[in-house]
Specification:
Length: 547
């Protein structure tokens, strides 16, 4: 053990040294920089990336037609206005003129058309938001694009915050052989380490499995405020010793949200460092495989749901969080506050277990649960679930896995374990985003659904709700779906997360942290909490802290 600790310490020191070397080089250039940490993978191709770290990068590098606001609405962005046909199946978007891509090309309606078709052809990332919904997209003229839908979609405009616009000509100039016919690989290899965007930052360097560095695009159409960071760096190291040391050395401006509680407490004691705590719309859940014994049994699943000590989780492990009430976070428009909330009740747990076909041979059916290796606190939750289940005689085997391997396991029904931890954040600010992403059959085989629910009735209800234009009627349908899902209990809904990130409050202005300090509850999709363009840096104050 002592030898292992020595090796780990040496590795941590080496990682810190490599990180500090890169940070020092930017200081020599006289640039202001925001450095952040988040777990990997981080695929910056907007037709591939969709998880938390990828969204953080994508919102810096690419623009979208509309932009999300803290109240859950959207405002015009690349599109300064749009028209909708009376039946809700045709949208016409009018683009700003003079928007430049990072290589100087002008962004036009052809790029919007190409971006949507490329996303749907590749079929990864956020493609599911549009596949089977967008029937046709075409450039009407240089600055007008028309999208025809197969059916009405109430939150369609909101979902467009995930259509990142790429430079058609630049992508086509970087094709390699691949499976997409005349489009080869659609530029996927090139876009691993390059961008074809028009966002406020452009790629300076990508080192796979390590970091993404973006530099300010001075000609960004949205303009710049004084003090805006010149550079951002998103690193894939979330190791606690490394993160704490970098914060202490002023070589990390904003930490990840995956640190152990004691690490946040230690960083908060550093001069000029504060810990921002805000409800982020994330919901920690354990996805239960509904097609694999013993979690294929609804009574077994409910027994697990009733045995968990939720109060211990939100008090001792993730303090400040709120116990979840179903799958939709409480601050998301369309949340149903009246759904069943499972509480620790061992009598009910035993009653449900007695109805299960596995009740008399529990030893033959252990429950295998995987948690994310990069999220240290998840281990504590997993151990708590293991202990609670043991009170019922249920054996839970927990496995610590890197996030990438968890995603690989979830690709097939055979390799998916009985339970998989997931922090889920809505892709746009409405309950339908969660319901579609988490429980529609189209998301099976991805990190978003380890339940393999494959319920035609639920699919139809979700599709019907999303097709409802009237918001009040649509929200009522969302509420009914939430009731049905809660009754089916395909998931252990643990809590709506109070996200924590340590940050250099002495020299960085971060709007999210300021809102949290003021007691405001924001509703933003993943990535936009860390929109670097709106931050400000005071290098002089950082220099003072380094003296």
């Amino acid at each position: 053990m002592r030898r292992l600790m020595i090796v780990l310490t040496v590795l941590a020191v080496l990682m810190i040294g490599m990180y500090a070397e890169c940070a020092a080089s930017t200081d020599v250039l006289g640039e202001s920089i925001v450095r952040m940490t988040e777990d990997w993978p981080n695929y910056i191709d907007p037709a591939v990336g969709s998880d938390f770290s990828e969204c953080i990068s994508l919102v810096q590098l690419y623009d979208t037609l509309v932009f999300p606001m803290p109240d859950g609405s959207v405002r015009p962005h690349l599109a300064y206005k749009w028209d909708v046909s009376p039946d809700g199946t045709k949208y016409t978007f009018y683009l700003r003129e003079g928007v430049k891509f990072h290589n100087g090309d002008e962004l036009t309606a052809e790029d919007v058309e190409f971006s949507m078709k490329r996303l749907m052809d590749i079929g990864e990332g956020f493609a599911y938001l549009f596949t089977g919904i967008v029937d046709d997209v075409r450039a009407i003229d240089r600055y007008t694009v028309e999208m025809n839908l197969t059916k009405p979609v109430g939150p369609f405009v909101k979902s467009l915050i995930r259509l990142y616009i790429v430079n058609k000509d630049q992508v086509l100039a970087n094709l390699e052989p691949g499976p997409y016919g005349e489009f080869g690989d659609y530029g996927k290899k090139w876009l691993l380490e390059n961008d074809a965007g028009s966002g406020p930052y452009r790629v300076r360097e990508v080192r796979m499995e390590e970091y993404v560095i973006g530099e300010k695009y001075e000609e960004w159409w949205g303009g710049w405020a004084e003090g805006a960071p010149d550079v951002f760096k998103l690193s894939g190291s979330v190791e606690p010793v490394t993160v704490r040391t970098l914060v202490a050395q002023r070589e990390l401006e904003i930490s990840d949200e995956l640190q152990p509680l004691e690490n946040y407490e230690a960083m908060a004691r550093l001069e000029g460092v504060e810990v921002a705590t805000y409800i982020n719309g994330n919901n920690l859940q354990v996805m239960l495989h509904t097609k694999k014994p013993p979690t294929d049994c609804i009574h077994f699943r409910k027994a697990l749901a009733y045995c968990i000590d939720y109060d211990a989780i939100i008090t001792d492990i993730y303090p400040g969080s709120r116990q979840a009430r179903g799958t939709v976070p409480f601050n998301l428009p369309g949340h149903n506050p009246n759904v069943i909330q499972y509480k620790r009740d061992l009598n009910k747990a035993r009653e449900e277990l007695s109805k299960s076909k596995y009740a008399d041979n529990l030893d033959e059916y252990p429950v295998y649960i995987s948690y994310c290796a990069e999220a240290a606190e998840q281990e504590k939750v997993a151990l708590l679930i293991q202990a609670c289940a043991a009170e019922l005689g249920i054996k839970v085997q927990i496995t610590r896995k890197p996030y990438g391997l968890m995603c690989a396991d979830l690709q097939t029904i055979e390799t998916t374990p009985n339970g998989s931890f997931v922090f889920y954040s809505p892709h746009y600010t409405e309950a339908g985003a969660v319901l579609m992403g988490r429980y529609h059959s189209s998301s099976c085989g991805t990190w978003e659904q380890g339940e393999w629910l494959q319920d035609p009735e639920i699919d139809a209800l979700i599709e019907d709700a999303l097709a409802t234009i009237d918001e009040a009627e649509r929200f009522a349908k969302y509420g009914e779906i939430q009731m049905r899902l809660t009754e089916l209990c395909p998931t252990l809904w643990l809590f709506d997360q109070a996200e924590r990130r340590a940050y250099q409050a002495a020299y960085i202005y971060w709007p999210t942290a300021e809102a949290a300090r003021a007691g405001e509850v924001w509703t933003l999709p993943a990535g936009y909490w860390l929109y670097v363009h709106d931050m400000k840096i005071d290098p002089a104050k950082r220099a003072e802290l380094l003296k």
